[in-house]
Amino acid sequence: MPTLYEKDIVAWANEQAKLIRTGQFNLLDREHIADEIEDVGKSERRELANRMAVLLAHLLKWQFQPERRGASWQRTIKEQRRAIVLHIQETPSLRVSLEDAHWLEAVWADAVAKATDETGSEQFPEFCPWTPDQILSLTFYPDRKCA
Q: Is residue 33 part of a domain?
């Protein structure tokens, strides 16, 4: 028979919150609570990775398709930068992701795939040519000569 956690996670969450608030700790579903807390961290990191991949893809398009540069790309770049900086301010432990080479490689691969899909081009660098500070700088826009 399925548990409340399996049948209705929202009802389960409300029940667990009530148990915590009323001090009925012995009735808590500790294993699933721990899983859900870990999932929150994973979700935050995924959001950062998704935003960073979108930002990097647009920076690639900006660099490699200068003839198509426009206000829309610039707005997307600015919005992703703003959202990433805000996300890191709200969750400072995410900053270490920006310095994690494996994380950045995976995000770069996603960005290159996005840029390739959107442009049909495969001329993009194998590795990210920009530092995290450049990527998040409000004034940095790559030029073709950066490649």
A: no
